[in-house]
Amino acid sequence: MHLSRQPQPRYLQLAAQLREELRHLQPGDQLPGEVQLATRFAVNRHTLRRAIDELVSEGRVLRQQGRSTRVLARPLIYPLAAGSAYSESLSAQGHGVQARLLQRQLRSATPEEADHLKLGEGATLLELHTLRLLDQQPVSLIRHRFCASRQVLLEDYNGGSLRQYLAERQLPLHRAFSLIGARLPTSDEADQLLMPRHAPLLTVLTLSHDLAGRPVELSLSTSRADRFQYQVAT
Question: Which residues form the HTH gntR-type domain (predicted)?
Answer without folding.
Answer: 8-74
